[in-house]
Amino acid sequence: AQSVAQPEDQVNVAEGNPLTVKCTYSVSGNPYLFWYVQYPNRGLQFLLKYITGDNLVKGSYGFEAEFNKSQTSFHLKKPSALVSDSALYFCAVRDGSGGGADGLTFGKGTHLIIQP
Amino acid sequence: NAGVTQTPKFRILKIGQSMTLQCTQDMNHNYMYWYRQDPGMGLKLIYYSVGAGITDKGEVPNGYNVSRSTTEDFPLRLELAAPSQTSVYFCASSSGAIANYGYTFGSGTRLTVV
């Protein structure tokens, strides 16, 4: 079985400071990892993914994430936060050894609040 | 290009009523999914489909049914609404089988059962 943990319900960061949203995962095979963002009353939007290759992946809106196999983590980062980054962020995982048809497993989400 | 379209956006149902949540995509994606989102619980997979005529249960299928008669449409049916089905429902689609293509999500249907 696959699972995702987002240990923080909420992260508060001052505008201009770096931000990190944490994610750890558990899969039996190789992980396919994703970050999505959800703005109020909207669907989820894709930010970035890790499938294979370089452990540091870059995505939309200046976000990046670092895959750490030994710590089974995939933390989302941004060097300088903007107020407009305030949203709900979801980490998701899929076991790459499976067929992939039965969907991603999502974490509970982390509210990111950027204070002016 | 509309992407994934869900209707209605909001709905209030009485206990025991039935309804169909509509989902349509215009990207010719074979894979489609229904999730429900509950506060603090993330997204849970209800049903998914790998192509027209093929559907399968996800993590929380009880109380729901789906059909996939065309590539474009993947409606979700609630037969006897219960308060536990109060949630936000998201439809998503993907072009690839191994999820490395990511999903395109609809904007959601907020359902309240009273």
Write a compact overview of the structure shown:
The complex is a heterodimer of chains A (116) and B (114). With 116 residues, chain A is mainly beta. Chain A has no helices and twelve strands.
The shape of chain A, in one word, is: globular
Succession of helices and strands of chain A = EEEEEEEEEEEE
Calculate Rg of chain A over CA atoms: 14 Å
Output mean pLDDT of chain A.
Answer: 91
Helices and strands of chain B, in N-to-C order?
EEEEEEEEEEE
Uncertain spans of chain B: none
Biggest interface, and residues per chain?
Answer: A-B, 28 and 27 residues
How would you classify the quaternary structure? heterodimer
Strand % of chain B is: over 45%
What is the helix fraction of residues of chain B, given as a range?
under 10%
Give the overall shape of chain B: globular
Low-pLDDT stretches of chain A: none
Strand percentage of chain A: over 45%
Q: Taking all residues together, what is the mean pLDDT of chain B?
A: 92
Helix content of chain A: under 10%
SS element count, helices of chain B: 0
Number of DSSP helices of chain A? 0
Main sheet makeup of chain A:
6 strands, mixed
Layout of secondary structure:
The complex is a heterodimer of chains A (116) and B (114).
Chain A: E1 3-5, E2 10-14, E3 19-21, E4 24-26, E5 31-38, E6 44-50, E7 56-58, E8 64-68, E9 73-78, E10 87-95, E11 105-106, E12 110-115
Parallel strand pairs in A: 2-12
Antiparallel strand pairs in A: 1-4, 3-9, 5-6, 5-10, 7-8, 8-9, 10-11, 10-12
Chain B: E1 4-7, E2 10-13, E3 19-25, E4 31-38, E5 42-51, E6 54-57, E7 64-66, E8 76-78, E9 87-94, E10 104-105, E11 109-113
Parallel strand pairs in B: 2-11
Antiparallel strand pairs in B: 1-3, 3-8, 4-5, 4-9, 5-6, 7-8, 9-10, 9-11
